[in-house]
């Protein structure tokens, strides 16, 4: 997985978006997140256009949790996507970018009262309701404002999708949503239909992330359609919207084989045709891809600071970033591919472990990987870091977070500035001893 514009020449010089990574590193410092605009735009448009072809046209609601900033929200608005937000902070970021609130879907299994108020105030298109408490509070706050808020109910379809397999379970022990079995969802639908201040527009279900098969996505759609028909028969209520969530896998490693979106869409079209009863319109389909839009566009450039060989001949290469800018290897044992700038492509290789700079043994970015021999000052590029890296970055060890720079056709623009040491203490207040 690499950005569309990433090139490595015969001397091993790496360029992205028409700019040498060394030049980017010198200009913006390292660690540095880089987004390749062309790759990002290609995926955004692919989802947008595939959904637009459905009848009625669907909406690609990019999942902001994968990576969000004011500029990225502005980009999504410019390209005509919708947006899934999960917090007041993501909502605020989108609104700051001037994002059309009508195309925002407000998620989250626990929205605080302030967040619900902010969503109502902004007039977001949909709330995805996750509990009866939320339904009640939302109804109350909407009534107080004299509005009727469109909602989707989050359902738990009983599909457990893992990376390479999925199972349909009778168990619905997820913290998210209302299980379609055991009458739990039925009670929620009945409550939503009876709650003044909210209008039930449809259902949502998300089955997991980094899913590398197409069947679970289709099974999810099938469960939602089957469940909708149950309500159509019982009460004549039929959803206007079915939001099938995100979770489309990407190729972190050469052996990862993500499903072809065209096939998922073809299956979906078929299901909508056979699953929509006579006399009603097929629901509008929302999808919420996050990772699969932004992961591949992203790389992180690091500078090698030190190398060492420890007993047992294990080689460590320590770089100037790590778990503060990419928590995924430590948290999920995620594996990334890396390349090194300026090394002869046919030159020697050795097995090394790329260690981060944070004070924790588990701060390893890439374990046991074959790379050219490195020395301090070399630039190492980790691929596929566009999703859940910047978004999950922290200030552990009081290390400032890296900037996000977007590149296209030889031009670089800052989307997020580098934090400074002063930023780290901006919210701190001085110590004054308590009187004993
Ligand atoms: N919609 C809902 C309701 C979700 O919960 C998620 C992800 C998405 C959409 C987007 O899923 P995507 O298309 O990005 O897979 N931090 C983890 C991923 C957590 C995903 C949580 N929900 C990671 O770094 O792998």
Walk me through this protein's architecture.
This protein is α/β, with parallel strands linked by helices. The chain folds into two domains: 7-36 and 296-424, Beta Barrel (Lyase, Ornithine Decarboxylase, Chain A, domain 1); 37-294, TIM Barrel (Alpha-Beta Barrel), CATH 3.20.20. The strands form four sheets. Strands 4, 16, 17, 18, 19, 20, 21, 22 and 23 form a nine-stranded mixed β-sheet that branches. Strands 5-6-7-8-9-13-14-15 form an eight-stranded parallel barrel, surrounded by six helices. Helix 8 (215-235) runs parallel beside helix 9 (261-275). The model has no long low-confidence stretch (mean pLDDT 95). The protein contains twelve helices and 23 strands. Bound molecules: ligand LLP. Residues 63, 65-66, 84, 107, 206, 209-210, 245-248, 288-292, 328, 332, 388 line the site of ligand LLP.
| CATH homology group of the largest domain | Alanine racemase
User: What is the fold named in CATH at topology level of the largest domain?
Assistant: TIM Barrel
Q: How many separate domains make up the residues?
A: 2
Strand count: 23
Counting H and I runs of at least 4 residues, what is the number of helices? 12
Oligomer: single chain
Distance between the termini: 60 Å
Helix % is 25-40%
What share of residues are in beta strands? 25-35%
Bound molecules: ligand LLP
Pick out the low-confidence regions: none
């Amino acid at each position: 997985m690499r950005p569309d514009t990433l090139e490595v020449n015969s001397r091993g010089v790496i360029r992205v978006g028409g700019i040498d990574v060394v030049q980017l590193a010198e200009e913006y410092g390292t660690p540095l997140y880089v987004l390749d605009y062309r790759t990002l735009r290609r995926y955004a448009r692919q989802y947008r256009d595939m959904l637009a072809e459905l009848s009625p046209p669907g909406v690609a609601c990019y999942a902001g949790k994968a990576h969000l900033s004011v500029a990225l929200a502005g980009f999504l608005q410019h390209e005509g996507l919708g947006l899934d937000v999960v917090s007041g902070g993501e909502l605020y970021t989108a609104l700051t970018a001037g994002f059309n609130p009508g195309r925002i879907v407000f998620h989250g299994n626990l929205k605080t009262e302030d967040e619900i108020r902010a969503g109502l105030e902004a007039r977001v298109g949909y709330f995805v309701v996750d509990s009866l408490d939320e339904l009640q509070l939302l109804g109350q706050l909407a009534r107080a404002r004299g509005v009727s808020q469109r909602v989707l109910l989050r359902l738990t379809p009983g599909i457990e999708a893992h990376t390479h397999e999925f199972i349909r379970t009778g168990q619905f022990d997820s913290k998210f949503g209302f299980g379609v079995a055991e009458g739990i969802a039925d009670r929620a639908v009945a409550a939503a239909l009876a709650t003044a201040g909210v209008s039930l527009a449809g259902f949502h279900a998300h089955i997991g992330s980094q899913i590398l098969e197409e069947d679970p996505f289709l099974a999810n759609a099938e469960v939602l359609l089957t469940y909708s028909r149950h309500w159509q028969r019982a009460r004549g209520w039929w959803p206007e919207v079915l939001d099938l969530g995100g979770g489309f896998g990407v190729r972190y490693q050469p052996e990862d084989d993500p499903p072809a979106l065209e096939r998922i869409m073809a299956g979906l079209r078929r299901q909508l045709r056979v699953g929509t009863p006579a006399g009603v319109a097929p629901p509008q389909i929302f999808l919420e891809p996050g990772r699969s839009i932004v992961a591949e566009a992203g790389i992180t450039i690091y500078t090698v600071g030190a190398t060492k060989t420890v007993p047992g001949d294990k080689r460590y290469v320590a770089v100037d970033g790590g778990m503060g800018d990419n928590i995924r290897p430590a948290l999920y044992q995620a594996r990334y591919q890396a390349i090194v700038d300026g090394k002869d492509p046919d030159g020697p290789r050795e097995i090394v472990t790329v260690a981060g700079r944070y004070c924790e043994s588990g701060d390893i970015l890439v374990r046991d990987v074959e790379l050219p021999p490195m020395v301090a000052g070399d630039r190492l590029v980790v691929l596929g870091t566009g999703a859940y890296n910047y978004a999950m970055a922290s200030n552990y060890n009081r290390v400032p977070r890296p900037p996000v720079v977007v590149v296209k056709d030889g031009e670089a623009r800052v989307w997020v500035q580098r934090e400074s040491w002063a930023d780290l203490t901006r919210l701190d207040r001085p110590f004054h001893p308590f009187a004993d």
